[in-house]
Amino acid sequence: MATITLKDVKKTYGGNVDAIRGVSLAIADGEFIVLVGPSGCGKSTLLRMIAGLESITSGEIAIGDRVVNRLEPAERDIAMVFQNYALYPHMTVRQNLAYGLKNRNTPKEEIERRIAKAAKSLEIDAFLDRKPRQLSGGQRQRVAMGRAIVREPVAFLFDEPLSNLDAKLRVQMRVEIKQLQRALGTTSVYVTHDQLEAMTLADRLVVLNGGRIEQVGTPIELYEKPETSFVATFIGSPSMNLLEIEGASSDWSAPPAFVNQPGTALLGIRPEDIGLADGSTDNDRFRARVRVGAVELVGAESYVHGSLTSGQPLVFRVAGRSRIGIDDELDVVARPESLHAFDAAGRRL
Amino acid sequence: MQRVVFPNKILPYILVAPQIVLTIVFFFWPASQALYQSVMRENPFGLKSGFVGLANFSAVLADGSYLNSLQVTVIFSVLTALLSMGLALLLATAADRVVRGQTFYRTLLIWPYAVAPAVAGMLWLFMFNPAMGTFAYILRRNGFYWDPLLNGNHAMVLIVVAAAWKQISYNFLFFVAGLQAIPKSLIEAAAIDGARGTRRFWTIVFPLLAPTTFFLLVVNTVYAFFDTFGIIHSVTGGGPAKATETLVYKVYNDGFVNLNLGSSAAQSVILMAIVVALTAFQFRFVERRVHYG
User: What family is this protein classified in (chain B) (predicted)?
Assistant: First the structure.
């Protein structure tokens, strides 16, 4: 168990390509942190720097009280779960689990005990003597988890561990990882590009973009109060609508108090906060007239993809199976407290 | 496999004909001649030959010099295969760590493979000939009495080194490809699991290279058995006192120098059987302990 502290960590490739442009982050003991962002945002690089698989150009990484900048991966006492599991194909599951312990000269009985315990909690005891190639994707995933657990490290690092699984298994494993981490109370850093996975797993989320931290916070904080327009569109599905205030035409209106804030450039509204107009004429609401382009039925609700008369797209949610047809013209409204305002640089006002 | 249907009935046969002709002329015909000759014996004047059954075989197998030659071949093959594969693996792991100029190193390292065996033999002979070799001179000056012309062990070392040197490039290429086929995340996982340098190599890298190693073992054994004739012929001529006379060299010596065609043919037939058995053995027993994927 340990904290992980990053101080102005930077990574530059080949002298001029900046992968990480100064990241500072304090991860508390036992916390589940998810690094999330689009491809190429540097999330995997950052994780690999914590693991010791990538060098640090400048800054400082500490695990517990130890600065680990110059330590080998083995000396950092962390365990990592890889995207492709990275199980040793020539060893049985048991040997895979034992390998890290043997390298550290753990006594034989202790290795046996830990493997038995991990195998039981992960339900992999039935195939301890099989080779990885004889296992399904989900079972391999469990073995990879087991290999991390038996080490009893101070921190777990996960590099998109669920992206090779099918959708159903992914949901199941997601829940199991969360439960396991709770039970063990081990500090964890988890990398994913899937915002849903990020939201459901994280104690705190770190949204990365272009090698910088956009925002750190609990999933709810990020959802309700995104600090930047990037976070606003990245978290939530379908993503938040962003309307430009500049040159806004008569096809939508927002509460004057809102639009008149100095510097307001973008107006954000989540699809789930927009509803069909019910005939009331409250002046303090967001109102717009939308022409329907497409309707997506996703079970309990539908998402309507429409456009304003100026051509700006707008997505909103309607409950149940709607009778909305293509090319219908609808009036929609949103409550003032559900609106988000951003300035020209994308910062929240 | 895709089934290809030719509209023309004769064309496919014409297309494979060159290969078939080559195989017949250079393999099946000589092999059948060897089988035929191995049961015949020439009269002292070489004018007539008569059927003698398996007499050639029993004579060869009872011959002390043949058994000596068998022993020489085994020592030579094992040493050559071990030396060339060991050095190739060492070079390949070193080249695998080079980030810049990898192609350059690889190009340089493949060159020896392009050298003909006889030429390779001459190169080493020039360097280590006791009369004119530079290295032989250096060795002697440092108090090492080096003389492959008189000392059988020295001669053996010389041909092993020459034969291994020529094969290193080939083995190197395969080992480099094998190393590159190992997923990087496996090495990283091993690094996190606390396995460093040599331990990581022997527990992770080497087992994963096993298919490559096995393949090279077969190729190198066959190479040491057959393709080293040119080296032996140019460097030692099988001497001194038959200390470097391998089975293949003895076939040549008995048949073409001493003109004992029946014995020579019997030896080639035995050689054929040995290679078939060796290859079958390797595939049957060694391959089983090799992990693929």
Answer: Belongs to the binding-protein-dependent transport system permease family.
Which CATH entry fits the domain spanning A245-343: 1.10.260.40, 1.10.287.110, 2.40.50.140, 1.20.120.520? Answer: 2.40.50.140
d(CA B196, CA B207): 16
Q: With an 8 Å Cβ cutoff, are A86 and B185 in contact?
A: yes
What sections of chain A are H helices per DSSP? 43-51, 93-103, 108-122, 137-150, 167-184, 195-201, 219-224, 229-234, 256-259
The per-residue pLDDT for range A183-217, each reduced to its tens digit, is: 889 999 999 988 889 999 999 999 999 889 999 99
Contacts of A78 in chain B (CB under 8 A): 192
pLDDT of residue B2: 63
The stretches of B54-209 forming alpha helices (DSSP H) are: 55-62, 64-97, 102-110, 117-128, 134-141, 152-180, 184-192, 197-200, 206-208
- Which regions of chain A are under pLDDT 50? none
The CATH T-level fold of domain A4-230 is: Rossmann fold (3.40.50)
Q: Does B193 touch chain A (CB under 8 A)?
A: yes
Fold of B61-289: MetI-like fold (1.10.3720)
A78, A89, A90: residue with CB nearest B192: A78
Backbone dihedral angles phi then psi of residue B254, each to the nearest 5 degrees: -70, -40
ipTM of the complex: 0.83
Name the token pair of B140: 């002697």
Mean pLDDT confidence for B255-274: 85
pLDDT of B43 strictly over 80: no
Which residue matches tokens 């939308």? Answer: A290
Q: Where in chain A is the domain with CATH 2.40.50.140?
A: 245-343
Do the Cβ atoms of B192 and A83 come within 8 Å?
Answer: no
Q: Which of A74, A88, A99 sits opposite B196 (nearest CB)?
A: A74
Contacts of residue B201, defined as CB under 8 A and 6 or more positions apart, other chains included, come to B93
| Neighbouring C-beta atoms of residue A275, cutoff 10 Å | 16
B293 falls in which pLDDT band (50, 70, 90)?
very low
Record: contact B195-A73, CB cut-off 8 A:
no
Establish if B181 touches chain A: CB-CB under 8 angstroms. Answer: no
Does any CB of chain A come closer than 8 Å to the CB of residue B194? yes
Q: Scanning the structure block, which residue is given the tokens 């195939």?
A: A127
Contact A148, A181 (CB under 8 A): no
* The two three-digit tokens of residue B293, written as one number: 């994927």
Out of B186, B199, B203, name the one closest to residue A86 (CB): B186
- Chain B contacts of A89, Cβ < 8 Å? 208, 291, 293
Report whether A185 contacts A155 (CB < 8 A).
no
DSSP B286: I
* DSSP states along A205-265: EEEEETTEEEEEE-HHHHHHS-SBHHHHHHSSSSPPEEEE-TT--TTEE--HHHHTSTTEE
Smallest Cα–Cα separation from A86: which of A157, A31, A38, A185?
A157
Q: In chain A, which residues fall in CATH 3.40.50.300? A: 4-230
Closest-CA distance, A254 to chain B, in angstroms, reads 52
The domains of chain B are located at 61-289
